[in-house]
Amino acid sequence: MHTATRAVGVLTGLSLLLGGTALVGPAAHADIPACTAMVEQAGVPVTADVTAACKRGVVSDLQGCVSGLTAAGVPGGAANGACRTAVHEPR
What pTM did the predictor assign? Predict the structure, then answer.
């Protein structure tokens, strides 16, 4: 019985570890370069403010990302699209 309890504990710990990796994984692969490229396509230079806004998109703060890009001079539709690309894995 003691061995079975230990096995369940090991499997539970392994599941939590792998599950945590899956939750962190997408943020590590988020696409800041795609976000900044869309900003450039909109005719706005990439500044530190633009990069900071794209980083907000990476952590799924879409409203903060769009607000930051709009404040940096990116038109609303382009800002929204750029922020949405920030959360996707690079292709």
Answer: 0.65
